[in-house]
Amino acid sequence: VWNATQRADQLAQENHVSRLFISIDDNNIRPVMTYMGEIIKTPTTVFGYTSCLVLPAPGAGPAIYLVGPYADKTVALLRQFASVSLLGEPQRLGLKPFRMYLVKPLALAQAPIPIRNFSNGLGLLDSTPQIMVGSNGTTEVTRWRIQRNAPIAPRTLYNYLLNLIPSTGAEATTTACLMNSLHMGDQLLVTFHAPTNPSAKSQQVLTGLTYDTVPDTHIFGPVTTTSFATSIVHLHLLSTSNGELKLAVNKAGLR
Q: How many alpha carbons lie under 13 Å from residue 152 in its C-beta half-sphere?
């Protein structure tokens, strides 16, 4: 992990790239990757898991991506929503290698929809999710704009928990996304398993919440201690400016 992140940092500086993104998959140790994102020179966003992807805003210029060895879905998202060039494959002893890419986000197919905003964190960029077909089936991809800034801090993660409800009374599909920093204007792509019910209505509903995880601290008089545990703070339901807790979107594939 050290060699891979140092090489990605070096490539970013050699190519005068101002942003570095590191993905977390289920086989990487999250604290190690987030710690490396805190200490390397290039401004870095660590994100996870493989059902989420963070992209710079279109027109923001290229970025370097260090992708986990088992994050095939992340690579598929990159190839569908960005121009991608493989730069290298840092090796891991006895295991699959990491992958490093130079990534340029593609322009949006349509203008953003400013009225479709969760006012406390996310704005929906497309009223119709896009379809992505992979080895594990079909997924719907919702595309969001991050609407706040939040800095890197030790062992601090910024989380979004989003639900897609395909029809009234149906069971929601939930996707969790996390980042070690937030940059206003970045895109957040969130995938959901596509509903298989052919009779589902043409509109679906999105709901969600946001929260931060921080180190668990305890104060004893003049002494402050930090444990290995974490606490949840700033927990909020995502809501629109008029207090609605949901956004309606078209069923994927319908316009």
A: 15
pTM listed for this prediction: 0.89
Give, in order, the Cα–Cα distances in Å from 164 to each of 117, 125, 173.
16, 16, 5
**Contact between 128 and 250 (Cβ < 8 Å):** yes
Across 134-153, b (16+ Cβ under 10 Å) vs e yields: eeeeebbbbbbbbbeebebe
Bridge partners (DSSP) of residue 123 are: 117, 145
Is 156:216 a contact under the CB 8 Å cutoff?
no
How far apart CA 85 and CA 79 sit, in angstroms, is 9
Write the pLDDT tens digit of every residue in 139-165: 899 999 999 999 999 999 999 999 999
Residue 95 DSSP symbol: B
Contact 33, 65 (CB under 8 A): no
Locus of tokens 């079909």: 138
> Is 214 within 8 Å of 82 (Cβ atoms)?
no
